[in-house]
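Write out the 3D structure for:
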Amino acid sequence: MKSLRQKPGPDTQRSLFGEILDWMLAPLLFVWPISIAVTHYFATTVANYPYDQTLREQVAAISRQVKFVDGRPQISLPGSARAFLRSDEIDSVYFHVLGRGGKLLAGDSELPALKPAEVLQKADLGEVYFRDDEYQGQDLRIAYMVLGEPDANPERWVLIEVGETLEKRSQLSNKIIASVILPQFVIIPLALILVWFGLSQGLRPLNRLRERIEMRREADLSPIAAARVPEELQPLTEAFNSMLARMQHNMDAQRRFISDAAHQMRTPLTGLKMQAQLAMRESDPRQLRYALENISSSVDRASHLVNQLLAMARAEASEHSQQALEPVDLDQLLHEIVETWVVRAHDRRIDLGYEPAGPAYILGNAFLLREMINNLLDNALRYTPDEGRVTARVVPQGDFVLLEIEDSGIGIADDEAHKVFDRFYRVEGTGVEGSGLGLAIVREIAELHRAAASLRPHPPSEQGQRPPGSVARVVFPAHRFPTPALAIPEHVQTGFA
């Protein structure tokens, strides 16, 4: 029977507790064998020291029994001294005294000796040295000394060597290693338990934060209080609160859209219904045609209102406002959009002009910028009487790029200039139909581009009179492309013409 439990895939995220525990134990398991090797090295070094000192003393004791008579070495080693050298109960001790040419003067002839040339080259007279060798299948630690007669022939010397097996050293080294390693088998499991307990206690704030989030109501998008959040979780909490704020903003935008749509669509839909009912009662073809024309006009107004509401929703919370801004030639974009409004301006005998300025780049979203310019042109044409004038231009000014839509319409009072960008605000007494959303959309899109939108009457002329109409202006930060490195011709690079 196959198990129904799925195996974790490569992208499956493990628990944070397990990840921290693994990263704490992995270095410990890696370092432990290294610590054992280092302990063994130092234990061997420590174990060698006292026994090397004993060998040094034995070599010195034998050297004191060597005399030079007429330049010839003589050794007088009583039996008690020999017995003392052989008195070790654990290790075997060997010694010999060699003269020139390797002649055995005393001791064990089988003990491996150094070559005379090597001894004289490396050793100083009277100094004790150590080396490792092998004798009868056993490892030996050997201390040796070269002894000579002062102020005599330098070839007159003797070699004294004392060696012993390594059993005592091995036993002492093992005791040192055991005294260090064995407690670790108790300390390490205890440390693991303490680490597990410490991690459990350390992650309790994270568990409490999770419980606080789980206990929140589904519609609760209020920020998480950071008073009891650990310092390490502050960035996560701030990012989560930022996400909640964006979600709240989008939900508020949706609520406003639904509320605005329901409020604004109620009147035109009611009018459409009444006009349709009146049309159904008419039998006169002329009256019926008149009623149908009213219905068509109402449908156009309702369609315009719906488009404005959708544009506002896109500017506030759509995916377009969240996309990265890219370099856009605002002058070229304005030229393309003005061409699409020529027919409508011609129908009303309005002189729609465009003043070219050359490339003027800003960082923007072309979709939203097109929506903004369309609303500015629509607003200018609506409030400009027939045979009036509307001029669109882009004005580069250093670090800024100005978009201006100038008209000869009814103008705007100074005290109402800042109100026209509010939702559904309309200047009274104009007699012009509209939704009151066009300039609100302009302001929303301008803020997304870190720009400032304004609507002002024409400045006074030299005679102190204001010409009719107004100027809508949006000030954008200019975009500067990085200066490319100058291309060096190949013949200059190589030095050949």
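The longest helix spans residues 16-63.
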